[in-house]
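Example S7 (structure tokens).
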């Protein structure tokens, strides 16, 4: 689902997604319309502009989280301001990409967001990491041992949570633990449910706050390739390498209707 108040930009993003094989189940021009439509459209990913005429993308994201929506939010914004990025992440956004991103970079970010990764433009990832480190420096009293939610996790779920907190992808965790990609996804989803969280960004933050992260997280960078998005320019960005995974462990393809605008 694509949410943007500029018709030309909204249509161009929806067209890029459709041409890449995704089904755009809905589009919206403002926050109120997005919140009305998302329940019926049931997208897996919402590509969301930050500056909307009636409410901010942060408010839309917060409303989706408050309503218990499982949709993953990828912010696509012209703003790279630190406060905008941190506010979006704290509200529950799974990723934040600048509109100057190249088209293949954007499509890769959508794919990663759908798979559960936290994806950021590199410079913005540094801001998020800085916030995580600040949180880690002042964890809540009691730590992991004092949290009843953590005690409900199985030994394997806790092990996977620690790896997620260091920024490892599902494929990397699967390779390290000799598990299938689907099994790792199931462990993460079970952990999210038990901890009443919505996405990997919240999971990383939770792990650090409760002393479960052994090292600072390394979030996924968006990878630049090819021509820019409409009216955009290429940016120099990097991506974290991942070990090869057997075909049998590859994630299932997105089903029709997983994207909403």
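Recovered sequence:
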């Amino acid at each position: 689902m694509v949410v943007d108040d500029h018709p030309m930009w909204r249509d161009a993003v929806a067209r890029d997604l459709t041409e890449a094989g995704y089904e755009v189940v809905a589009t919206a021009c403002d926050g109120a319309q997005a919140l009305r439509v998302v329940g019926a459209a049931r997208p897996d990913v919402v590509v969301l502009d930050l500056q909307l005429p009636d409410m901010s993308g942060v408010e839309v994201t917060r409303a989706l989280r408050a309503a218990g929506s499982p949709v993953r939010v990828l912010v696509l914004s012209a703003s790279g301001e630190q406060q905008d990025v941190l506010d979006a992440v704290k509200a529950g956004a799974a990723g934040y990409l600048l509109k100057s991103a190249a088209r293949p970079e954007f499509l890769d970010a959508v794919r990663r967001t759908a798979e559960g990764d936290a994806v950021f433009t590199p410079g913005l990832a540094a801001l998020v990491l800085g916030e995580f480190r600040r949180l880690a420096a002042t964890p809540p009293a009691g730590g992991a041992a004092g949290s009843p939610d953590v005690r409900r996790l199985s030994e394997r779920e806790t092990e996977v949570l620690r790896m997620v907190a260091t920024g490892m992808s599902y494929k990397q965790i699967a390779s390290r633990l000799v598990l299938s990609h689907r099994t790792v996804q199931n462990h993460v989803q079970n952990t999210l449910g038990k901890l009443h969280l919505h996405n990997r960004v919240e999971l990383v933050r939770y792990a650090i706050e409760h002393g479960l992260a052994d090292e600072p997280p390394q979030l996924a960078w968006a990878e630049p390739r090819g021509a820019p998005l409409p009216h955009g320019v290429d940016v120099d960005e990097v991506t974290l390498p991942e070990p090869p995974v057997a075909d049998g462990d590859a994630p299932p393809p997105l089903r029709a209707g997983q994207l909403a605008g």
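Notes on this example. The chain is about 45% helix and 10% strand.
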